[in-house]
Amino acid sequence: MSFTSLIFLFLFFPIAIIIHTFAPKKFKNKVLLILSLFFYSWGDPRYLFLILLSIIVTWFGVKRMNLIRNRREEAKFYMVCLIVINVAILGFFKYYGFLIDNVNFITRMNLKIIDLALPFGISFYTFKIISYIVDVYTKRCEPQRNISDFALYITIFPQIGAGPIVQYADMQHELLNRNVTIDKFGKGVEKFVIGLGKKVLIANNMALIWAQVKDIPDLKMSVLTAWIGIIAFTLQIYFDFSGYSDMAIGTGYMLGFKWAENFNYPYISKSATEFWRRWHISLGNWFKRYIYFPLGGSKCSKLENFRNIFIVWMTTGLWHGANWNFVIWGLYFGFIIYFEKVKFGKILSKANKKVQVLYCLFIVVIGWVMFDMNGISQILKFYGNMFIIGANGVVDGTSLYLIKISWRLFLPAIIGSTPYVFGMMDKIKYRFGKKGYFCISIFYIFIVILSVASLLGESYSPFLYFKF
């Protein structure tokens, strides 16, 4: 079930909020767990057993690990086994086909691949499970005594599809003690509406432009057409994923939870390093805490630090998808971030801020080509179109047509990817008081009406990160 489906918006979501709001405090978690399991099993109930199996094995395993925590080697063995079990499940469903393809390519064998659907949200809930195992082992938090409360942490419906990946230690208190105030509920509604508008009004339309460009044969694509297409995808993926995160965080507020922001205007970053501090913040924090720091982080030799960054970014690429383009994309950013860290960052910091932002945007846009194109040959061909090699001229009729029909979408999208819009809204609230709040409320109602009207007239468009 998607946040932008009419069934969710007009049936499941209002019913879930009403039931949770009026449920007695001692039953709120159980009610929310039932709702979350229903939400999870809506599209493909076959994998409900799989996620419940992971929850049960992890909960009992961590309980046992905690009982023997004074016997450190034995407890560590339990921790490693639990992590291996959960990673193995993720690896089988996500990388089985990728592994067989590569074995067939290397050995010239013809092993058959069983077509397995990727369990909904498995990349996200597996990382949440790992955070729980490690946090209990390192005594960052105590194990959850109630298995249903632990199951709620793993399956809570706003996060299960595409995050944010909230670590257990950051959520354990609110699982048992949370309050829904009018202010918190209102902030949640506001956040949800913003996310809905980002996804439906901007991301979905940017996706149409990018799809048009990708359908053009390589030898018939001009330089400007290629750049229009990849800029459309650059905006699409930001508004799609940040839109989902806003809707998830907003829903959390309405349920009494307060989750940290997952995006902080990444396209105004002045370096690739800063970009990844602002993009998918919860994933970046997860990799730092559970992979980068345990490997030694930056408190080691330059060679070891390079190794640590290499491992983190190769893993980041693989986490996003079972394809070599994701691995290349991850290593691409790993090399750039290391290069900025050891040398180029100091030179870059002395440049004009606009130059720094343009540098970062160029690096990121080049990276998105690797991210979305399937296969090295397609990536190289598209780069050729972007940089004149093999392109059908610099400008053609298609590129002029795309500019004519889409500039009204590109302009608000570019402005909306900066802090300008929400900064202006805060000024209106501060300067005009109740009248300002009233005007902004009308603006949000307008977004909802436009979004619903758009959803009624278009085919289903899932969030991009659902496939990861």
Which percent band covers the strand fraction? under 5%
- Give the topology string: H per helix, E per strand: HHHHHHHHHHHHHHHHHHH
Mean pLDDT: 89
Low-confidence stretches: none
* Overall number of structural domains: 2
Helix share bin:
over 70%
Main sheet summary: none
Supply the helix-strand structural class. mainly alpha
Question: What is the strand tally?
Answer: 0
Q: Tell me, briefly, the overall form.
A: globular
Spatial gap, N to C terminus: 16 Å
Rg measurement, Å: 23 Å
Number of helices: 19
Organism: Peptostreptococcus canis
InterPro entries: Ac/AlaTfrase_AlgI/DltB, AlgI, MB_O-acyltransferase, MBOAT_fam
Subcellular location: Cell membrane
Family: Belongs to the membrane-bound acyltransferase family.
Summarize the structure in words.
By secondary structure, the protein is mainly alpha-helical. The protein folds into two domains: 6-177, no CATH class; 183-467, no CATH class. It has helices spanning 6-22, 28-41, 48-67, 72-107, 122-137, 147-155, 157-160, 168-176, 182-214, 223-254, 272-278, 281-295, 302-320, 324-349, 353-372, 376-386, 397-416, 420-432, 434-456. Helix 1 runs antiparallel to helix 2 (28-41), helix 4 (72-107) runs antiparallel to helix 5 (122-137) and helix 9 (182-214) packs antiparallel against helix 10 (223-254). The longest helix has 36 residues, at 72-107. The model has no long low-confidence stretch (mean pLDDT 89).
What are the main properties of this structure?
2 domains; mainly alpha; globular
